[in-house]
Amino acid sequence: DRSVIAKCLFLCQILKFDSALPLVINTWNFENAANAAWSALQKGGSVLDAVERGCSQCELEQCDGSVGFGGSPDERGETTLDAMLMNGDTMEVGAVADLRRVKNAVGVARAVMEHTEHTFIVGESATIFAENMGFMSEDLSTNKSIAIFSQWLQQNCQPNYRKNVFPDPSKSCGPYKPKAKLWKPKNPKGNFDPSSHDTIGMIAIGKNGQVAAATSTNGATHKIPGRVGDSPVAGAGAYADSTAGGAAATGDGDIMMRFLPSFLAVDLMRNGAQPTVACKMAISRIKKYYPNFFGAIICANTTGGYGAACNKRPGFSQFPFMVVNPQTNQSQLQKVDCF
Questions:
Q1: For residue 171, is it within any domain?
Q2: Known catalytic residues?
Q3: Summary mean pLDDT of the chain
Q4: Is the pLDDT at 131 greater than 70, yes or no?
Q5: Residue 329: what pLDDT?
Q6: What is the number of domains present in the chain?
Q7: Annotated binding residue at 18?
Q8: Residue at 170 is within a domain
Q9: Is residue 41 part of a domain?
Q10: pLDDT value at position 4?
Q11: Average pLDDT of span 125-153
């Protein structure tokens, strides 16, 4: 009977839909972060709890040296942190940047969301806010970050992020002064090191389609003090909307933040694009202007579909990411070929 077959197919689709949620997905092969977020969900925590817990795990583990304390020293040798969370139900955002002397950046970002009417607090004032909220103040330097900084000084401060200044930033350290000549467009450096810009970006989607996203990073190695990248910027580093889905980006934040790729990807999913297609379109938009940029993005929709995309460049042809849902029931490493 065709009607019976149709009903069976319909029920199968429902079961398949249900089995795809809840979902946790995060950038890079940060397995313990995915497991921590999944555990939070399994224990009854909210999606916001999950992404905070996952990113906090990376902060504790200093994932790839690019998240948390003791990594990516700036031009003064100091490690500073950026983080954000976004609640896709309420569209609330909490973010901090250039956070000093406090290890749990994503926790401070959540405090901004829950204990202020603001969205974004930065610099020394963010540290004071964190201390007032009960977060411990401690040195974020480690023997490793001090060694990275010392070696950089011995290499005449190479590489760095200066341009159109003197003395010549490709040969010497500052202090720098502006050159009295017209600025010329400059493509990203060919010797760009992807490991200097890893970020954990995470999306969690609840069993009823609630969406949250979060990021945490210590930014670009040897960055100019005070620099803020894409990670803590809503729509750039991550975006969440429970009517559509979530997205999170990683890579060269100084380039990527100009295009709001996470917002774009979520908006594309809102208009019917599948997650993989939305991710590719967000990357393509940046690639049009910066064909050699380093970057990747993960996307997930409210039915549990997910995908990722990355820009292919020398030394970066695949992008790894972690996924957990009821079908895997444990963190699973997946990879996507860059284009």
A1: no
A2: 199
A3: 92
A4: yes
A5: 87
A6: 1
A7: no
A8: no
A9: yes
A10: 45
A11: 97
Answer for the pair 109, 96: CB distance below 8 angstroms, yes or no. yes
> Is 228 annotated for ligand binding?
yes
pLDDT at 198: 75
Residue 328's domain comprises 23-141+191-337
pLDDT band at 1 (very low <50, low <70, confident <90, very high): low
Q: Is 253 annotated as a binding residue?
A: yes
Q: What is the CATH number of the domain that holds 102?
A: 3.60.20.30
pLDDT at 13: 42
89: pLDDT strictly greater than 70: yes
In a domain, 273, yes or no: yes
